[in-house]
Amino acid sequence: MDKGSVPQDDSPTYAGHHKLMYAVDEQGRYTGVQSSGWDVEAYATLLAVTEIDRLRDDAWHRARDGRTSPLEYHMYRKRMELATLAATTGHWRWRIRRHFHPQRFRKLSDAVLQCYADVMGMTVDELRRLPQRPDV
Amino acid sequence: MSESVGFAHRQSAHCESGVASSMLSHYGLPISEPMAFGLAAALTFAYIPFVKMAGMPLIAYRMPPGAIIKAMQKRLNVRMVRQRFRDPETGMRALDEQLAQGRIVGLQTCIYWLPYVPDSFRFHFNAHNLIVYGREGDDYLISDPIFETTTRCARDALLKARFAKGDLAAKGLMYYADPQANRVAHIDYATVIPQAVRANLRIMRKAPLPVIGVKGIRYLARRVMQLHRAPQAQISLYLTHIVRMQEEIGTGGAGFRFIYASFLQEAANLLDSPLLAEASRKMTDAGDEWRRFALHATKMSRGRQPLDLDALSVVLNRCADYEAHVWDLLKAV
After folding, report:
1. Per residue in A14-51, pLDDT tens?
2. Is B54 left (phi over 0), alpha (psi -120 to 50) or beta?
3. Chain A touched by B331 (CB under 8 Å)
């Protein structure tokens, strides 16, 4: 890639930061060049973020209607999915899936809830509750 | 408590090679980021369907986390102390002790818990490397190689980032140059460059699995062709997932291909080798082809170009052709 073709697209995903890229100058020498973003990459990033936000919103609606527990909503809100939550808590996936049942979730002991709260960086109280809006 | 250890922050494309380059340079062994990356033989390609990231197969363009730091020890004889901790508080105290003695310390962290990272790059990835070069009260002074400038991080957040659990969990890993060992004063490039290139050649051309190296790229090309049966939304997520792995988190562009080309060029100058210079140019061509893939894959996902999986597959195979050519050249090193 030529120095001149290093994209400078001011991508919102970079939040004003610049990344270092390696590109060749007019003499063919490699040099580090800062980039303010690339539309192509920003689209890919945003699509992934949108997808997990969609899952989060969907879980919020189901939790509100009593079809899942707040745990599923909080999992997506913290940008996790079942595999990540299983790996961080050390629980089996099927066990976590059971905890998505609203009734079972309500009966969980503080110790189990604390384990979830710890890996998600929140309090047990917050974990039990569903916020007013999904995007808080 | 304030530390002044005369540490100079430098921005890098990739966190681990950046930490390696900054640390070694700080200890009087100046080395560029591409040189650290290249000497570690860190370039690869791997398509690992059974390791999932957010439900998508792992696609790696470099060796697993930790490989670069380890290679600095092995190939350059730099002695490092590496410590992991069971108890977070012990781990934080150990960090404080090293800082109090004026040392800079490398840490492995989970990028999600670092508050200074822009929101769209915060996901649960446990192997982000950074340097702590001091402490002021509750704030740690951070040199995160992928950012332009130094920054700060509060103790609670840093503790959380160091001790996040899950895949590749850091367990508080910290590393620093062994104060007891003799400092390595120079690098014998004539020996280590050919060693490193040969090691990388083995990974790219001789891995016994069809999903690693140049064969792995062709494997990915076949997988892309087979997407025909999947629904459009799934195709978009899959294609942009490849693009993210290739471009998003500090690869220096084209999944580390440009960093490696830069290494080959630096090596060519040091050893006065036209062969390495030629390999560097060819690797740049490969990188350009990867960028073209990213461009078209994204356009097709966005519906700005008609979806043509066969064409994408052809581009990927061309990347494989270019890289095969580079490594064939490098057999003579």
Report:
1. 999 999 999 999 999 999 999 999 999 999 999 999 99
2. left
3. no
